[in-house]
């Protein structure tokens, strides 16, 4: 079974590719890669190469073999930015993914919805959608990489999470921001990632109100992390020093899973 899954990309054994790539990495990068879960998704994050066939797998290995001190410095810099793309690169239609099918996705009425804010914050007031929509908006066209082996480029806009954390007086020395979703999905985000300039409270997809498929009314978009660390249908945020686990994290996926 495992063998079949590792060969889902024609002519490419994913398990072997990940092993070969790790072998080519300089020590620091390899340690970071292995402790981060060593998946094909992580390789895609590190190299920006998407593996779809044998030729792109070779290309990825060639890129890894050129990793040097500059690459390491970038990877270990918390301000490293995920690559951005232009409108014409957007994947249409953008894929839907969740631990269930689309017809089972939460149906949330935006008028009733409010974001609960708790934990190590000065202001524990809940935020309505109308209030969030009034905050300054930023946009990004970035690549979403799923650990299951697909990636797609999309366009998301909303409120920079670091701006919001400032606004509610969050203790930014706390270890995590933990998100809870309407479908019982959860995910903890480390504070440096929560404060990363590209981490976003997303309210729109491709210029339109965020569709139900992609997490209406709000998702957290983190282009420096694998897709499963991008919670959709968010209903609550807690600033905390406790590691509270998450849907995939509790099933063995590495909580770091990113750059
Ligand atoms: N609430 C919630 N968020 C979630 C998930 C989920 O099942 N429920 N799946 C995650 C995974 S594994 C992926 S790849 C992305 C998919 O997001 P998309 O539907 O916008 O492509 O959502 C992530 N966030
Ligand atoms: Mo995913």
Automatic annotation (TrEMBL):
PANTHER family: BLL0505 PROTEIN, PROTEIN-METHIONINE-SULFOXIDE REDUCTASE. InterPro entries: OxRdtase_Mopterin-bd_dom, OxRdtase_Mopterin-bd_sf, TAT_signal. It comes from Rhodopseudomonas palustris (strain HaA2). Residues 105-248 form the Oxidoreductase molybdopterin-binding domain. Pfam families: Oxidored_molyb. This is Twin-arginine translocation pathway signal.
């Amino acid at each position: 079974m495992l063998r079949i899954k590792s060969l889902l990309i024609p002519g490419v054994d994913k398990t072997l590719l990940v092993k070969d790539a790790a072998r080519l990495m300089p020590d620091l990068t390899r340690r970071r890669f292995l402790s981060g879960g060593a998946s094909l998704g992580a390789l895609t994050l590190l190299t920006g190469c998407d593996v779809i066939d044998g030729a792109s797998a070779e290309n990825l290995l060639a890129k890894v073999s050129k990793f040097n001190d500059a690459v390491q410095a970038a990877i270990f810099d918390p301000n490293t930015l995920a690559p951005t793309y232009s409108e014409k690169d957007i994947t249409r239609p953008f894929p839907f993914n969740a631990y269930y099918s689309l017809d089972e996705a939460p149906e949330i009425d935006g008028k009733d919805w409010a974001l609960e804010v708790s934990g190590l914050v000065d202001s524990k007031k809940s935020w309505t959608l109308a209030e969030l929509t009034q905050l300054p908006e930023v946009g990004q066209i970035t690549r979403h990489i799923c650990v299951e082996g697909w990636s797609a480029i999309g366009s998301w806009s909303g409120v920079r999470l670091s701006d919001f954390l400032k606004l509610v007086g969050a203790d930014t020395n706390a270890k995590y921001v933990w998100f809870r979703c309407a479908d019982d999905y959860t995910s903890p985000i480390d504070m440096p990632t929560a404060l990363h300039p590209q981490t976003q409270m997303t309210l729109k997809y491709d210029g339109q109100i965020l569709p139900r498929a992609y997490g209406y009314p709000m998702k957290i978009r983190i282009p420096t992390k694998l897709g499963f660390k991008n919670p959709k249908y968010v209903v609550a945020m807690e600033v905390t020093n406790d590691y509270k686990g998450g849907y995939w994290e509790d099933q063995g996926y590495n909580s770091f899973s990113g750059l």
